[in-house]
Amino acid sequence: MSPAENHRNRAAAFGGLVAGVTDWSAPTPVAGWTARDVLTHLVSWPAAFLASAGIDLPPVPSEPVAAWTSHAARLQALFDDSPDLVISGTPMGPQPVAELLDQIYTGDVFLHSWDLALASGQLPPLDEETSAMMLAGMTTIEPMLRDSGQYGPAVHVGADRSAVDRLIGFIGRDPDWTPS
User: Which intervals hold domain Mycothiol-dependent maleylpyruvate isomerase metal-binding (predicted)?
Assistant: First the structure.
C-alpha cells in the first residue's frame, strides 16, 4: 500500500472514531490525557513538525469533528499532491514528505486510534497484521524510542496475547485498561 493509501485508510478509521465520541473530556489510556487531548496531539504535532521544515498548513477549526476532517484533508493533500517533495531541516535529514509522514505520523494515528476508541467506548480498529509488523519494527529501535520520551516503560504482556495487546503494552499502555 502506498503512503497516500495508508494515510487515507488510517485517517478514515480515526475519523469514524472521532465522529463517535460523545464526551471529549473522557479519560484515555494515556495517563492524564482526555479524548480531546488525543485529537489535539494528532492535529498539532504534524503541523508544528512540518512548519519546522518550511511547510505551513492552514489552521483547523476548533470543533473536534471539523478539526479532524480539515486536518486529515490537508495532510492527505500532501500525500496525494506532493509525494516526491523532499523536506529537510528535520532530525531525520532530507526525505520525501510522503515517506516521512508515513513512517512517523500515520503509525501514530494507528496507535492513538486505540486510545480514542477505548476512551469513547468504541471498538479499536487495530488489526493483528499491522500490529505485529509495527511491533517487530519498533522492537528493533526500542532504546531510541524510549530515550525520545515519546513512549513510557513497556507494560508486560504475555507472549500468548494478541499482537495488538503486545503492541499496546510495548508502547506503555495497559491492554486491559478500562475507564474508571
Answer: 11-52
Which residues of the chain are modeled with pLDDT < 70?
89-91
pTM: 0.91
- Looking at the 3D structure of the chain, how many domains does it have? 2
| Residue carrying C-alpha cell 499502555 | 173
Contact 28, 34 (CB under 8 A): yes
For the segment 143-179, what is each residue's pLDDT rounded down to a tens digit?
888 888 888 899 999 999 999 999 999 999 999 999 8
Closest C-alpha among 61, 55, 56, 127 to residue 87? 55
Question: How far apart, in whole angstroms, are the C-alpha atoms of residue 49 and residue 39?
Answer: 16
Residue 121 C-alpha cell reads as 467506548
Range of the domain at 159: 127-180
